[in-house]
Amino acid sequence: MNHDDHDDALLPRLRVIEEQPLGARAEAYAQVHDELTRRLEGGDSVAAATVPGDQGAHA
Fold first, then answer.
1. What is the H or E stretch that residue 55 is in?
2. Cα separation of 33 and 4, whole Å?
3. Source organism's superkingdom (predicted)?
4. Roughly what angle, to the nearest 10 degrees, separates helices 22-49 and 3-18?
5. At a CB cut-off of 8 Å and minimum separation 6, what does 1 contact?
6. What is d(CA 59, CA 24) in angstroms, rounded to the nearest whole number?
């Protein structure tokens, strides 16, 4: 699944979560939170590994 697929799937997923009983809703939102946190932290590690201006060619 690419970035756009994740974004397109989020709103329908949240709508389904909203229809659930409170306890199930809380657990489902916690799962969404954990997944989004992993995606954001993964993006940070890729960005941190990239040095601006470094094209990989060293003299």
1. none
2. 18
3. Bacteria
4. 160
5. 9
6. 57
